[in-house]
């Protein structure tokens, strides 16, 4: 049996190395490592012939010595020893590998198969005695070890895995490494080697942390950051509006009148009709801020006020003609005219910021109309959280009624104002519904003690006692019922 020593000496094994990538919102580029083992030809064809010749010579020698044939049990033991020796010569041990950061080390587990029963994990056929790979705890033909993404063989020194599937490192990065929704580049890793990004809590827009400080504009309506390849519309007062929000934006006072009529009907359905006709004006940001400073009473939502219920006599610059789009995505040719407010009752006008989508404009208008209703009905001066809270409840109720009264396919035809828009513009009902859900989310998740806590206290009271009983309790006590 001395010929076995030659087999061990000539057995040739090559080792290559790979990396595993994990997939989390914050994770390292290389989380786990695998080492695929590559055997060369197990032994050359000439050595196969040497083995056969040696076996034959051994049998001839034994016959010539006259020892006869060994008994069956003894022969079986020798055959098993031979098979074990050859099998041990095929086991590929992996050498020590370098560490990559704080990764977990995974050594391939040797798998033992009867002779001739290595099955390729790629094609499910027997491998036999040719070249093979031993990685991911199984065997492969070299040509069957393919990338899950591009389906090309993996011959690189390093590779990545997801689950039990191998990938080229570049294919894995393209498939699983998050890209910035603003600059479209791969989000870089931080000093700790983790992928760190920011995400909008509602839209789940992912972006590099640097964009929060590099003057990347946000849409004044939906708050999404402006992608590099899609320019937002620049309004005259410095705000930016994305193209989806622009699709349903209300740009001038006349255009807002059908929506105003719809919300008046909504109040009537709640048995809360306004007895006086209150003027509604759409204005620019500067005009709204100037009117706010001239108002003695009122609470204002920061960082920006988008609506105002006036009680003082003022002259307001109202938008009388919507702007058109010019070069560079700028709104141009907008016409304004002065509007003198006279005091005929406790409310002189409602002002709304122009250029906001219909559902956002409507929710602001529903909020400001509640201020008007409280003043016209003679409610005492209320604390900020109670007055702003009940106004936010009405804004939320109007949005909820708009979304619940129409399915995604006919949302835009649920009211007369929507129908007028639908006939004039090509709308995206699915996005408008999503936009309405976002505005409701803004009201519900507001963290301010006045608008946020006030809304949540008011909503609990209305759900428990109903709107009318809640309003009666506010009339008598100035507080929400508990």
Automatic annotation (TrEMBL):
One biological process term in Gene Ontology = regulation of DNA endoreduplication
Question: Does the entry feature the keyword Acetylation, yes or no?
Answer: no
Report the superkingdom from the record.
Answer: Eukaryota
- Which PROSITE patterns does the UniProt entry name for this protein? LIM_DOMAIN_1 (PS00478), LIM_DOMAIN_2 (PS50023), UIM (PS50330)
Q: Does the keyword Ubl conjugation apply?
A: yes
Family matches, as InterPro entries: DA1-like, DA1-like_dom, UIM_dom, Znf_LIM
Gene Ontology molecular function terms on file:
catalytic activity, acting on a protein; hydrolase activity; metal ion binding; ubiquitin binding
Per UniProt, the keywords (alphabetical) are:
LIM domain, Metal-binding, Repeat, Ubl conjugation, Zinc
Please note every region of biased composition (Basic and acidic residues): 20-31
| Domain LIM zinc-binding span(s) in chain numbering | 118-178
- Sequence segments annotated as region (Disordered): 20-46
Q: Name one Pfam family in it.
A: UIM
Query: What is the protein name given in its UniProt record?
Result: LIM zinc-binding domain-containing protein
* Provenance organism: Lupinus luteus (European yellow lupine)
